[in-house]
């Protein structure tokens, strides 16, 4: 197969994919810190609270979970006005072969559910080092820098064109940089440097100018040497990108927090000030809390997780530029952290990272989010 895929050919493949889908198009250490958070009444509708403030509030979910879990579906209807497909829009899922047809069937199922329940949907992610298909290393590795950049832009243009007008946000580039200014993408990064980020946003903007374009990142908010080094790298990256006119509109902070580490509101507010000073919107995109840093019963762990989340939410939702909050999973049993052996708790107990427990009951972190939304100023219509 010719290693260069022309844009017109790729768009034809995208059009073919439309027909193939066959569906209708959508260590908190201090005791004082642990006891500072007092849960609000758990009754009520989280979605309604968010709607009244003009905020987005939602979660990541898979098409399979929607199709098979009626109890989960009910929580989504009560808690969410926006959804994001957890895996179904990642490159490794969308494109099984080099230059091959684009498969959006899973994402279309999430979209159909969202539309049926008057929810918005966001896309995740057009470019992410950890979701590249297995064939990409050899196929794109053999290309020149110019052809690799063309391939990246052609793929993003095809995907964004397919979804044009149906999503409210795209994570265009996900987790681009590590500590000490090291690019995490080992496919396009070595060929193009951070210019691949500019190219990705350019392609997304050209294909779908009305969908908010987000640069999404994580591991930059807490009191840990690596996170602080990565935060410094992120600030420098954003300065360079914005100074040369990269078409970024919003910074998404994933918000995968850990109770093993502290959180400085002052430092985080300075970072948010820096971003909003450049004209960027803000979004919490993947909130959950790894409670491995707290030893004790479920109640104590839930209180610690809620306290930590409450502090982050309090800072970010105080900015009118912050558009809302998505969690990465709505119920503990579906959390990606439960599937990660390296994140297992030392006492053998299952992590409790999300808004609701294994019985779908709202926990303290649900209350923390509800309280933060209630305290936030209404957003303009």
Brief sketch in words of this structure:
Helix content is 43%, strand content 14%.
Task: Provide an overview of this structure.
By secondary structure, the protein is α/β, with parallel strands linked by helices. Helices cover 43% and strands 14% of the residues. The protein contains 15 helices and nine strands. It has helices at 7-21, 31-35, 46-53, 63-68, 70-79, 91-94, 105-116, 136-141, 145-162, 189-192, 195-207, 225-243, 265-277, 298-316, 364-375, and strands spanning 56-61, 82-85, 120-128, 169-174, 212-217, 250-253, 256-258, 281-290, 322-327. The chain has an eight-stranded parallel beta barrel with strand order 1-2-3-4-5-6-8-9, surrounded by six helices. Helix 12 links the parallel strand 5 (212-217) and strand 6. Helix 9 (145-162) packs parallel to helix 11 (195-207) and helix 14 runs parallel beside helix 15 (364-375). The longest helix is centred in the middle third of the chain and has 19 residues, at 225-243. The chain starts with 6 loop residues before the first helix and ends in a 6-residue tail after the last helix. The model is unreliable at 1-42 (pLDDT under 50).
């Amino acid at each position: 197969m010719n290693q260069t895929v022309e844009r017109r050919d790729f768009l034809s493949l995208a059009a073919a994919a439309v027909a193939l889908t066959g569906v209708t198009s959508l260590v908190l250490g201090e005791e004082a810190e642990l006891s500072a958070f007092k849960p609000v009444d758990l009754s009520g509708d989280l979605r309604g609270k968010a709607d009244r403030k003009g905020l987005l509030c939602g979660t990541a979910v898979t098409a399979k979970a929607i199709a098979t879990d009626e109890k989960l579906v009910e929580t989504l209807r009560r808690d969410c006005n926006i959804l994001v497909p957890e895996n179904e829009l990642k490159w490794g899922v969308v494109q099984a072969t080099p230059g091959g047809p684009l498969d959006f069937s899973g994402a279309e199922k999430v979209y159909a559910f969202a539309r049926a329940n008057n929810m918005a949907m966001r896309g995740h992610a057009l470019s992410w080092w950890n979701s590249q298909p297995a064939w990409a290393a050899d196929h794109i590795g053999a290309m020149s820098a110019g052809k690799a950049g063309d391939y990246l832009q052609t793929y993003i243009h095809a995907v964004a064109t397919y979804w044009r007008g149906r999503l409210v946000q795209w994570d265009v580039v996900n987790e681009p940089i590590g500590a000490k200014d090291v690019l995490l993408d080992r496919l396009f990064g070595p060929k193009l440097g951070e210019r691949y980020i500019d190219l990705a946003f350019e392609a997304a903007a050209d294909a779908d100018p009305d969908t908010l374009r987000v640069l999404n990142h994580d591991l930059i908010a807490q009191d840990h040497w690596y996170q602080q080094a990565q935060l410094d790298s992120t600030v420098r990256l954003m300065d360079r990108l914005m100074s040369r006119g990269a078409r970024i509109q919003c910074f998404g902070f994933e918000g995968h927090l850990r109770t093993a580490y502290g959180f400085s509101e002052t430092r985080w507010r300075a970072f948010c000030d820096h971003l909003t000073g450049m004209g960027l919107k803000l979004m919490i995109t993947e909130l959950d809390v790894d409670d491995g840093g707290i030893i004790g019963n479920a109640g104590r762990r839930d209180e610690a997780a809620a306290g930590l989340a409450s502090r982050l939410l309090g800072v970010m939702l105080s900015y009118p530029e912050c558009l809302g909050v998505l969690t990465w999973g709505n119920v503990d049993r579906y959390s990606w952290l439960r599937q990660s052996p390296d994140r297992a708790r030392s006492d053998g107990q299952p992590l409790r990272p999300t808004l609701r427990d294994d019985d779908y009951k709202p926990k303290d972190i649900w209350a923390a989010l509800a309280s933060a939304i209630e305290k936030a100023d209404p957003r303009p219509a």
